[in-house]
Amino acid sequence: MTSRQLLAAIALIALPVVTSCTAAPHAAAPSPSAPASTVSPEPVSDPTTETPAYADPSPSDFTMKLRIKRKHCFGSAGCNVDVEPDLSYEGILPIDPDKTYEITYRINGDESGPVVETVSLTNGTSMEYYPSSLSAASSGTKITSKVTDVTETN
User: Fold this and answer.
1) HSE toward the beta carbon, residue 40, CA cutoff 13 A
2) Residue 68's beta-bridge partner residues?
3) Which residues neighbour 1 within 8 Å (Cβ) at sequence distance 6 or greater?
């Protein structure tokens, strides 16, 4: 077998296999007096340009724990405690990384009553916040937190 015959055989193998073919009857050319009609192709969905589904987060989609960063107790006078938020998102759909959310939470355990703070969440992972300073009645005071509101800011 010559190289030319070999290339022809390879080209035949690479051709797609057609299992059936139907042809529509040839339509007559439109007469000059008949208006030409055009058919618009149906839109094709491109999976690379589909918009991903993002959550509209609510307070129940987040859990908030507090990390004690500093605790200084004064016997019967109580304790000064500095805490920072440890936020977790537990929603089913991801949150939009292009949006910024303000997440408001309530801290219980301060002598004077609940303390309300806000965390700014950007890129779905970056948090901006200020640590909270509390005055606890004793070293055994339980300090807890709960997310109360989620607001989209942009």
Assistant:
1) 3
2) 83
3) 9
Q: What is the DSSP string of 95-140?
A: PPTTS-EEEEEEEE--TTS-EEEEEEEETTTEEE---EEEEESSTT
The encoded tokens of residue 75 equal 């016997």
pLDDT digits (tens, 9 = 90+) for 104-141: 999 999 999 999 999 999 998 899 999 999 999 999 99
Helical ranges in the chain per DSSP H: 3-14
Cα separation, 113 vs 87, whole angstroms:
22
Between these two residues, 51 and 43, which has the higher pLDDT value? 51
Return the CA Rg of the chain.
34
pTM: 0.66
CA distance 136 to 4: 91
